[in-house]
Structure formats: C-alpha cells, structure tokens
UniProtKB/TrEMBL annotation:
Annotated localization: Cytoplasm
GO biological process, one term: defense response to virus
Lineage, highest ranks first: Eukaryota, Metazoa, Chordata, Craniata, Vertebrata
Needed co-factor(s): Mg(2+)
Organism: Chionis minor (Black-faced sheathbill)
E.C. code: 2.7.11.1
Protein name: Serine/threonine-protein kinase RIO3
Gene: Riok3
Subunit-level organization: Interacts with CASP10. Interacts with IRF3; RIOK3 probably mediates the interaction of TBK1 with IRF3. Associated with 40S pre-ribosomal particles.
Amino acid sequence: QCPWGAPNTTSISCSLADVMSEQLAKELQLEEENTAFPEVVAVAEGPFITGENADTSSDLMLAQMLQMEFDREYDAQLRREEKKINGDSKVSISFENYRKVHPYDSDSSEDEVDWQDTRHDPYRADKPTTTPRRGFIGKGKDITTKHDEVVCGRKNTARMENFAPEFQVGDGIGMDLKLSNQVFNALKQHAYSEERRSARLHEKKEHSTAEKAVDPKTRLLLYKMVNAGMLETITGCISTGKESVVFHAYGGKSATEDKVMPPECAIKVFKTTLNEFKNRDKYIKDDYRFKDRFSKLNPRKIIRMWAEKEMHNLTRMQNAGIPCPQVVILKKHVLVMSFIGQDQVPAPKLKDVTLSSEDMKKAYYQTLNMMQQLYKECNLVHADLSEYNMLWHDGKVWLIDVSQSVEPTHPHGLEFLFRDCRNVSQFFQKGGVAEALNERELFNAVSGFNITADNEVDFQAEIEALEKMNEDHVQNHGKKLSMFSSDGDPPIYDE
Ligand code: ADP
Ligand code: MN
C-alpha cells in the first residue's frame, strides 16, 4: 500500500441531469445577483473585463504586470525630473527617448470594447453622406465657397487624419475645430519630422526585442488568453511581416460564449508601433464604411480597425463558404483564427508549392470561383490577392489576409480588383494552365462588367471611368442608386 494512503476515489455518482440542473441553478443565481448588484457581477464575470480585476494566479503574468507597473513608475519619475530640469525655461529638454512605455503602449482601456462580437458587421448598412460638388453652398448672400475661412479651417482639421498614427491630434478631429492654413502647415511639418524621428527610434526598439516579436502589452494580452484556458500553448511565430506578426497556438479547452476552440489556431497581431499602416490609408480613407468612424478615432484605434475589418471580411467569406480561416475571437489588435495547416506546420503559400498540372488547373478554377463568390456574395474585393496570400491545404486553395479588402464600390475598388486579376492570371498562366483567362477577361468574369478594350491602358481607363461614374452617383444620389447593386445582381448601368 502507498505510505501516503490511498487516494479517496469514491466518486460521487451524479447524473447528467443533476449537472445540468446545477448549472441552471448557478445561472439563475447569477441572473438574480445581476439585477441586485450589477457592478459586482460585472467584475466577477472573468479576467478579461478590465486590466484592473487582474487574475493573479500565474507567476509569469504577475511578473509581467509588475514589470509594467515598474515601467510606468519609472516614466513618472522621468517626467518629474524633466519638469524639475525644465522649470519655467522657454527651452525645454525632453526625456521622451528614455521612456519605457511609449505613449501608445500605455493604454486607457476604459473606453474600449473588450471581446468583439464576431457576427455583427457594423459596416454593412452604412450609407455615405452626400456632399455637394458645386464648390459652394447656400444661396444669395449666404453663399459659402470652398475658400471660406470656416470651411477651409474645417478641411484642414479633417486632413490631420493623414498624419502618422503616433501623432497625437487629440480630440481635434472629432470636434468642430478650424485650423488656419498657417497653423495647419506648421503642424504638418511637425508631424512629418516627428514621424521620421519616431521611425528611427522604433527601429532600434524593434531590433532589440526581435525575438520577442511583440510589445509587452501584447504579450500580456496573449498570455491572458492562455491563462484563461482559451489557448493551450503559444508555440511560436509563423511569420513576421511589416504590418503583422502571426503566431501558432494550440487551442485550449475552455469554450467561451458557446465557441469551441479549434485544435490549432493562428494568432494575427497587428503591429501598433510601425507606420506601415499609413501606406494603406487609401484602403480605408475612401471606404464609406469607415467615413463616420475614421475621424473620431485615435491612431491606436485605427490600427485595431484593421483587425476588426479582417474579422468581418473573414466572417463574410466564411458565410459564403469560401475556404478561409475561421474567426475565433478578436481582442484589440489581436485576431485569433483557425490554423490552416497541421501540427504547427502552416499550409504552404501557392507560390511555394509545386503542383501537378492537374492540381494547378483545379486550383485555377477554384480561384476563379472564389473571386466571383467574393465579389458577388460577399460584396468584397480582396485587394491583395496573389500567390502570396493563397494557401494550398487539403487539396484546395484557401484565401487569407483580408484586412485590406474593400467593397467593390470603394472609389478604387475596381482598380484593386484589376490588380488582383492580373496577379492571379499571371500566376496561373506562368504555371502552365492553358485555360487561364487573361487579366481583362478575368476582370469581366468576376465583376460581370463587359469592358471590351483589348489593351491594358484603355482597359484601365475604362475602369477608372466606371469608378468615377459611381462616385458621382454616390455624391448625387447616395449609395442606393449607385450602379453597383450590393445584393449580388449583375451591375446595372443606368445612364
Ligand atoms: P501579412 O499582412 O503579414 O501578409 P498574413 O495574413 O498574410 O499577414 O499572414 C502572414 C503569413 O502567416 C501568411 O503568409 C501565412 O503563411 C501565415 N498565416 C496567416 N494566417 C494563417 C492561418 N490562419 N493559418 C496558417 N497560416 C497563416
Ligand atoms: Mn500576406
């Protein structure tokens, strides 16, 4: 016999019904408490609500949190010294470069949604607001032109959104602020030099923490997911791009909100420190789905919007049955989805596999099909479609990387589509698929347009003309009457 005594294994026999009813009882109790003490229950719901109700059951997490606290205190001390040195002096010295926590790492999480609803697509029904194109508004002596000081000032304010994400513009964009040209230009100059300085600074920082790949905040966030049992382990990094870092993880057992975790997950972390997103401005700046929100958000939130956008686009694709990663959960700038691949090995990109000519042909027809589905059923244009963002898995092509995807009626949507078509067409033609349509035929086949131009230049000119026509329609009549219909019917010309 074991000296420690036999373990007490007398199992309490208990039927499924008992368990069920116990759960039911718990639920009922929770519900009751909820009405009686709403705020108490809110804290008890789980470790993810705020950073304050910290779960301290893990040493690593505790250590990370202490480190964060230490860094903040260090920064506070730095600020005090900065103040002491500068005093009332007109010329001041900044210790900014010595700070541990970059202003954008220090999060004010009070105003944030935590776990995002993966089903509701807030971009769907939005309609653009029409602004007159005449260059003036009003009548008689109340007429205002675009040179009007007030109008101009407001425009300048709105243009601040083009500044780098790091540039703090405060609430300026959201409120009715009028910047004179002189002030705006000075700000712009400052924003640019600040951007260059910040890029240099971050380059250093990024290098020093290359193996860690993400900032402490994000690491903590990932760690919380593991701690909550949502993920089993995060095994390593699959890819580090300019805009994102992708990790592999094994799914945990805990299923939150009726969600079952996939056995293997891919975690896409959108980078919050780099400026690359600015280059993608054109994808969202003109996207009417974002018009209302864009101006009211701070830079950090704009980067989160990329993650959000990827989530909603993936959901649309999933609903249409297009092979793509399934969204698991979105938290701030971190998107967890199902892993395409097996045993930690990601499925190869189409550019990296050698397919038999039969598979190549199969892949081509599937891609053509998916592009049509994407356009007609999801009302989306991938906008970065190429052999780099198509994975070969399970004998078929999977589409990934859709954060930049836009609706076809986006002011540049058709140009993006044409670029996609060119990539796809060239890839499969080079790959020896004799049936592969050329880029112009593919464009027509996907969009349902019938552009007859037989050379690239004319074709592109027609595409741009179509876009412009649509823009004018949107300006004059609102989205409803635009020549693209959003419910999947072939486009109608109504000129
Ligand atoms: P980026 O914007 O950096 O290109 P991607 O979404 O294309 O981001 O992801 C980068 C790489 O990570 C992909 O090329 C692919 O190899 C891998 N990857 C991304 N998502 C998944 C996934 N769900 N399953 C497997 N691998 C993935
Ligand atoms: Mn990619």
